[in-house]
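A sample follows:
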Amino acid sequence: MSGAISAARVSTLVGDFDRSPAYAGLADALVLLIGDGRIGLATRLPSERELTEALGVSRTTVTRAYAALRDAGYAEARRGAGTFTRVPGGRSRAHDRALLPRPGDHEAIDLNCAAATAPPGLAAAYVEAAADLPAYLGGHGYFPAGLPELQAAVAASYDARGLPTAPEQIMVTPGALSAASIVARACAGPGDRVVVESPVYPNATQAIRDSGVRLVASPVDPDGWDLDAVGATLRQASAKLAYLIPDFQNPTGHVMTDAQREEYAGHLRRTRTVAVVDEAHQALALEGQEMPRPFACFAPETITIGSASKSFWGGLRLGWVRAPEGRMDALTHARVAMDLGAPVMEQLVLTRLLAQGPVLPDHVARLREQRDVLAAALREHLPEWRFVLPTGGLAVWCQLPAPLGTAVADEAERLGLIITPGPVFAAEGGLDHFVRIPWTRPGAELEEAVRRLAAAWAVVRDRQSQRTRPGVRVMVA
């Protein structure tokens, strides 16, 4: 069921809007509120009469403002029901569609999915692993906890980072999304609250939501985490779990310091909330910098999720869970209801890769070069866009001067570029001031992508300017 917002509330939110002319100022204020999520999607706006009275303006002002909203794609009229908020392109833009290509997508530059091509050395690992496979063919091939040698390799990677881990604390899964789903099913149930960051990786939150839990958003600002606000959210939510990404947060790229991890852990202890920490990007430190200690060093009850998809290759569909002692039985029961183990061949491949380190050196060098090419192109062609260049991970989170992320993504698609607008990453709506741009394609392709993006931005910006420009009065002299 769609919600509604009162005229008094709209009046408070729009405040002292620009009245030159009033209808354009009101329309601009409403676009900003809808784009940022302060007025939710599919919300029924007040009637023209109600808003006219609340704002103290003419009926014509509200009528023209609502018409401008509809023309811009931020509202729609429903016969007999009223005017409802929306975003350009509809709700379908608020879902990851990497696996749902539209006609012509194969001809476009696809920056929707933040995943790189396979690094050099991966094919050799497959060839070597194939020689090990016959030793496993005489058994049933099911390893719900994972191949023992891979469990040991993953555990050793935590030991090397200062977090002592036994192989029995590791469960290998068919990817990090499967891991998130298993954890949610094992540790929370229908109606339980789970705090999630916003913006956040949308597929993970969907995997968690599918267990029937209720998500509570904890905003991550463009400059990082507001830990006082995090503490307040945890207290108010009485949540079972808190899903967070402290290492190269997706999509912002932020890294939580040791001091911030310790403070966050204190909030978790006081509210008895268990952290579910996603470390999918943790190994992608592009400056060779030393990373903070694992979050579980500060909060021992933490359940950690890892993945081979970002540090090695997306086609290597493997992830894992590192659980504190006493949790593995519940995780195993939740897991066998979904599947009985990850493919043996891929586990053998990953075991060999991890013997060389958490990420292949050539992979890091290539990603660093591509990141720098993307950043230079953005500074040249889109100087009015703001971003903080991440020191690792796979993408840059760009802030636009106006809440036009969805409109830019739509226009870019017409120019043969697929990018993801901010609302895709919003746990509860909003974030249309942002787009995420991965640096996972070759440099020349990234430069061309930014040129197309700049062209899309110019079209959307000019369209917005034309829509809000006061009409020219016909003068008779």
User: Anything to note?
Assistant: The two ends are 56 Å apart (CA to CA).
